Description:
Blueprint: E1 7-8, H1 9-16, H2 20-28, E2 36-37, E3 43-45, H3 47-61, H4 66-74, H5 79-113, H6 119-122, H7 128-139, H8 141-153, H9 156-179, H10 186-202, H11 210-222, H12 224-227, H13 233-250
Antiparallel strand pairs: 1-3, 2-3
Helix pairs in contact: 7-8, 9-10, 9-13, 10-13, 11-13
GO molecular function: DNA binding; DNA-binding transcription factor activity
Organism: Bifidobacterium mongoliense
Protein name: MerR family transcriptional regulator
Amino acid sequence: MEETRQWTIAEVSRSAGVTSRTLRYYESIALLKPCRVGANGLRLYGMAELARLHRILSLRELGLSLNAITATLDDGLTLEDAIRAHVAQLEEDRRLTTQRIDAAKRTLAAIREGETMSVEELFAGFDRDSHEQEIRRRWGDAAWERSIAHDAALNESERTSMRQRDVRINQALRDAAESGIPADAAAFQELIGEHYLWVKAYWGGRAPTSDQYRGLAELYVADARFSDVYGGQANANTIRTAISLWTRTHLT
């Protein structure tokens, strides 16, 4: 009967437009569990699970974090409260975006009028100098120069793809930290592996050593400019722990 029909993870993935990996990740953080797992490991989903997935995807479309979605679905947080908190975050994001738009407009105006802009004006809203100084101090001039050379070698399409990858990886790490799954969980450690490759790409293809990668994790905790990307120091602490565990297994 239709009421008892069940769908495989592949069927749900195809119909809902999400990857099987995403569904498995949702399962690992107890956000969406299959109604049954067969002896061969085949995951099956019923109508109740599909309805829950629909709500999850709808809330994700609104931009809510997985932590907020879990609280809304399982912990009694009202949808109104969840959206109100999200609006506050969006307003802060808008403030930062406005700074960058203003800086870009000033750059355009200066170019049109043949003026020379100061470094401070050019990078207003990006705090580029402070990041450069931090990277040079911690990892040396060569690491910074390789990063700049790598970025300069990209065409616009490649640069856009790189930035999209930035957002995806950082958001995935933030979601994992907020979800409360252990830092040594397989899903979390897999994300750290992706993050390491992302860092390597930004370093011009040079793989960070164990000490360098752990040093980067320390920076995420120590510097609010970085910890804020991951939703605060508590999340940054969790990510630092996950990175430390990953280096013990994958780096010598």
